[in-house]
Amino acid sequence: MKPDELARLVLMGEGLTLEFKTRVPKAERISKEVIAFANTSGGRLLLGVDDDGGIKGVRDAEEEEYALTAALEKHCRPPVKISTERIPISNKRNVILVRVPASSEKPHKLVAENGEETVYIRVADMSVEASREHVRLMKNRNKADNVVFEFGEKEKVLMRYLENYGRITVAQFARVADIPKRRASHTLVLLAKANVLQLHPDSKTDYFTLAYAG
Length: 214
Description:
single chain
């Protein structure tokens, strides 16, 4: 990438597929960002650009790339594939472009120092923890088995609610159908797997809509 192309990219600002960092932050933090891209639509991470879009570059690109690689090897399971490119902005500084493709091995998990595992996804310009429903859908994305479900009373309640309000959360479905949240979650995920519903990740609470809604 040429410097003028970099400048145009930075002008786009941070978003679903673009993140700025002045340098490689703490290992778990940078791993979280990369995992979120891999678990969503892929993306690009610019090292050497601040939050306001200032292109400062990093002084030691080799050291930054080493820190990035070490962080991902330690904290990403399964491993996330990336590529890097150095973009010179002066005789002593480079911006590092990190490309993260959308993964076919999702969900990738962040493994913390204490062994705790968390799945992250990208929502707008943030990397957030994936809901249980989103993780289940990622795990089942490649299963070719036909989804079978009975369209009973609770599904009718669900459809009436969606016709009136357009969207529904797990908690709302559990309340209106008078069923446990676990059962509500299972039903919504099953219908999403069958392409009847679509899951929409949200930084506060995920919600579902009809998949064929206009």
